[in-house]
């Protein structure tokens, strides 16, 4: 079986490439806009990985490159594009068209728990729209709907270590933060299974409100941390004042708007079912980060 992975030079995509290449029952095709960077992302120190990976040029903005890269591919692990949502939608449409043209039989798409075109979160719309494209494409699919990554959320937690205050506009919303490594293992597991034709919620073991998140952070750091529910405009002002890009300021604000609506509190057993391992806790991820 030939399995291709988009975003293979990124943290998550390269992990999926390494996991799949460690087995000798299939060939892995690493798709990258910069093929020369794959060697760094997927170290050749792993003999099985080095021998099992084929690298192909593929650019989300170049439909011809996507069609050529997917020639002969049976399964695609589709790691989402990045950046502004409108641009991502063009990228994703290019990928789905290439999938259809190349006759790919199964797409494992990395989506989000909040994959809903009615959500205030900009990427929830993108994910929901892409899922619909794949459903209408006629190819087999499995949707890996990940919760918010614990490592990503850490960007909002680390400043609280110095100030003792976690300032985000999350209201009483809950988050079931999932580790990036757990999501990568699930993507690899879904890739070697047949199309499920449904979505799989990939979450942490428990949903926490932000008071509970602050308590975990305080326990790991060994110092008091409290949660302050700031008004939504306050986050935008603070991010803009820190020099954040306007798009990402909007993206973060829209994400917390969806958290306030309690759209990320789902807890499922899919990580354990797919990987045979219990999902890592937020404390586990934070301890590694702090260390």
From TrEMBL:
Species: Promicromonospora thailandica
InterPro entries assigned: NAD(P)-bd_dom_sf, NmrA-like, NmrA-type_oxidoreductase
Protein name: NAD(P)H dehydrogenase (Quinone)
Phylogenetic placement of the source organism: Bacteria, Bacillati, Actinomycetota, Actinomycetes, Micrococcales
Domain NmrA-like, residue spans: 2-237
UniProt signal peptide: none
Matches recorded under Gene3D superfamilies: NAD(P)-binding Rossmann-like Domain, UDP-galactose 4-epimerase, domain 1
Any matching Pfam family: NmrA
């Amino acid at each position: 079986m030939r399995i291709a992975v988009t975003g293979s030079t990124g943290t998550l995509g390269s992990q999926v490439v390494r996991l799949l290449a460690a087995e000798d029952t299939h060939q892995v095709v690493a798709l990258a806009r910069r093929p020369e960077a794959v060697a760094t992302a997927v170290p050749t120190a792993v003999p099985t990985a080095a021998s099992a990976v084929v690298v192909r040029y593929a650019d989300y903005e170049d439909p011809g490159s996507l069609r050529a890269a997917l020639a002969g591919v049976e399964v695609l692990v589709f790691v989402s594009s990045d950046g502004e949502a409108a641009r991502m939608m063009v990228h994703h449409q290019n990928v789905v068209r290439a999938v259809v043209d190349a006759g790919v039989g199964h797409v494992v798409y990395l989506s989000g728990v909040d994959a809903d075109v009615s959500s205030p979160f900009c990427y929830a719309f993108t994910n929901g729209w892409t899922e619909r494209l794949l459903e209408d494409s006629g190819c087999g699919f499995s949707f890996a709907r990940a919760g918010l990554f614990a490592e990503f959320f850490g960007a909002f937690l680390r400043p609280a270590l110095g100030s003792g205050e976690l300032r985000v506009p999350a209201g009483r919303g809950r988050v079931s933060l999932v580790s990036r490594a757990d999501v990568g293992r699930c993507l690899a597991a879904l890739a070697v299974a047949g199309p499920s034709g449904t979505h799989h919620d990939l979450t942490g073991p428990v949903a926490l409100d932000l008071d509970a998140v602050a308590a975990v952070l305080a326990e790991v750091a060994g110092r008091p941390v409290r949660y302050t529910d700031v008004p939504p405009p306050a986050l935008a002002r603070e991010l803009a004042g820190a020099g954040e890009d306007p798009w990402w300021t909007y993206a973060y604000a829209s994400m917390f708007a969806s958290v306030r609506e309690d759209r990320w509190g789902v807890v499922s057993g899919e990580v354990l079912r797919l990987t045979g391992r219990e999902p890592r806790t937020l404390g586990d991820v934070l301890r590694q980060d702090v260390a």
